[in-house]
């Protein structure tokens, strides 16, 4: 078993290394470049300025140029990576002068930092979760889950191609999920708080954690046990927050400035062609012309909570491992479809629980996972990552096919029909986008078609996930 795990890990690292050879976000695209430059710039800021200055606009920290807008744990990580980078070549993070810095050596260094996070955090975390999900799983089941997560092209293309560190927040979340399954609730609270303090998008997973842990507290046999349990969990969460936020808690203004950076309402409900409801609605009814940003933020909050409430109420009342995964899946989809300031990459938050649900619904969720990659194709195409995206998705599908023989019900109507139609539709749109130029009047036609098509799929999967949670005996 150990040799198979090592082989799978090396396979995952090999795929990541190959994708790392391709282009990245913002390559040779001044003046703003892209996410690669954003990560480099955060390293520049954190190693050259005092901690309390990291989120504050100044002559040395122009927030209009990739100002830090992730929580403190990301900033600390940027500081660590920046210090290592400076020890290799001071030009990597030289204040002001390093803007837009590009070199082969720097690319190798930056790519290595992502792979290091894969090795140290992401792959061990998903292996731990694969071994924690269900005691009845055979070794082959655990190995298959680990293989599929390691080979999932969405996370690999975004982190090792486009360039981000989703592997850290997703890895921390995976450890928290595994801790829930093992009944280690204080550990779960600690690691999820770390995940949330690395990327605020982990709010997509927050309600299921809250519902599950609150349900465990309420189920205690006595009121004193309830108070003790909830107090310990609250202490873990608040202490972790306090330690991470300590430099900014000494001033209310500093703390509010960090929050302002983390939740920038002024940016609008979305910035690009993202596969959620508001982008789809905007095609026929221009939201910015009729609703202010503040009003839209309230609408998004209300819709997201309404969409998330049923699955989490059920989880609070009936807590099972599969039910928890379904709640994570349904809630993260609700946030992706209805919340404010959604980015293409945040669909990865729904993909994580989806992969671990493949054991029970393989034929349905393999399509979902393929749609998640399809929804990010406009972003990946801009980064010249279309070829590795297609190849990596094909490899992922082949791995799935090798391990999962299609069950008899997959040949029944309407599942087979819907599966085939989804795949044909996505392939047709991709081929058309490559062969048929968009009209000059509508230059974003194909990205928009991809986004709306993906949104339709995600809405159907959101309904499907809720039906499964309320009807399946597993949940």
From TrEMBL:
Species annotation: Drosophila erecta
InterPro entries: Glyco_trans_ALG6/ALG8
Keyword vocabulary terms for this entry: Endoplasmic reticulum, Glycosyltransferase, Membrane, Signal, Transferase, Transmembrane, Transmembrane helix
Example GO molecular function: dolichyl pyrophosphate Man9GlcNAc2 alpha-1,3-glucosyltransferase activity
GO cellular component, one term: endoplasmic reticulum membrane
UniProt key word Kinase: no
Name of the featured protein: Alpha-1,3-glucosyltransferase
Main location group: endoplasmic reticulum
Cleaved signal peptide residues: 1-20
Pathways per UniProt: Protein modification; protein glycosylation
Gene: Dere\GG10119
UniProt record similarity statement: Belongs to the ALG6/ALG8 glucosyltransferase family.
Location(s), subcellular: Endoplasmic reticulum membrane
Domain of life: Eukaryota
Membrane-crossing residue ranges in chain numbering: 109-130, 142-158, 170-196, 229-249, 296-316, 322-340, 385-404, 424-440, 446-465
Classification via Pfam families: Alg6_Alg8
EC number: 2.4.1.-
Entry membrane topology: Multi-pass membrane protein
Primary enzyme class: transferase
């Amino acid at each position: 078993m150990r040799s198979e795990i090592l082989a799978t890990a090396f396979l995952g690292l090999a795929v990541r290394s190959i994708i790392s050879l391709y282009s990245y976000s913002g390559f040779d695209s001044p003046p703003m470049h892209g996410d690669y430059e954003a990560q480099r710039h955060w390293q520049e800021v954190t190693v050259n300025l005092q901690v309390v200055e990291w989120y504050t606009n100044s002559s040395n920290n122009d927030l209009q140029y990739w100002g830090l807008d992730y929580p403190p744990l990301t900033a600390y990580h940027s500081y660590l990576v920046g210090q290592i980078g400076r020890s290799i070549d001071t030009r990597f993070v030289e204040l002001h002068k390093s803007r837009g810095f590009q070199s082969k050596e720097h690319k190798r260094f930056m790519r290595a930092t992502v792979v290091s996070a894969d090795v140290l955090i992401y792959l061990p975390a998903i292996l731990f979760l694969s071994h924690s999900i269900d005691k009845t799983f055979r070794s082959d089941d655990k190995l298959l889950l680990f293989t599929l997560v390691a080979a999932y092209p969405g996370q690999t293309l975004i982190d090792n191609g486009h360039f981000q560190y989703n592997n850290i927040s997703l890895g921390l979340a995976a450890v928290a999920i595994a801790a829930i399954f093992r009944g280690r609730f204080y550990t779960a609270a600690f690691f999820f708080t770390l995940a949330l303090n690395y990327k605020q998008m982990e709010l997509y997973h927050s309600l299921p954690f809250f519902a599950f842990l609150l349900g465990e507290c309420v189920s205690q046999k006595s009121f004193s046990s309830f108070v003790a349990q909830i107090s310990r969990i609250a202490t873990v969460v608040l202490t972790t927050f306090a330690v991470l936020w300590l430099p900014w808690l000494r001033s209310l203004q500093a703390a509010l400035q960090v929050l302002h950076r983390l939740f920038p309402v002024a940016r609008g409900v979305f910035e690009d062609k993202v596969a959620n409801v508001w982008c789809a609605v905007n095609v026929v009814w221009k939201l910015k012309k009729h609703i202010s940003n503040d009003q839209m933020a309230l609408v998004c909050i209300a819709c997201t909570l309404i969409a998330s409430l049923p699955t989490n109420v059920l989880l609070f009342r009936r807590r099972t491992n599969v039910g928890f995964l379904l709640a994570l899946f349904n809630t993260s989809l609700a946030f992706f479809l209805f919340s404010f300031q959604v980015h293409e990459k945040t669909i990865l938050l729904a993909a994580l629980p989806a992969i671990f649900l493949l054991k029970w619904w393989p034929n349905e969720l393999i399509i979902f996972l393929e749609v998640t990659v399809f929804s990010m194709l406009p972003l990946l195409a801009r980064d010249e990552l279309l070829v590795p995206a297609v190849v990596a998705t094909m490899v992922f599908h082949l791995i799935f096919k090798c391990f999962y023989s299609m069950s008899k019900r997959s040949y029944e109507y309407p599942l087979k029909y819907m599966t085939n139609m989804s795949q044909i539709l996505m392939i047709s749109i991709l081929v058309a986008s490559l062969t048929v130029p968009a009209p000059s009047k509508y230059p974003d036609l194909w990205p928009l078609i991809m986004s709306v098509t993906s949104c339709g799929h995600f809405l159907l999967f959101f309904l499907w996930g809720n039906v499964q949670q309320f009807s399946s005996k597993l949940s």
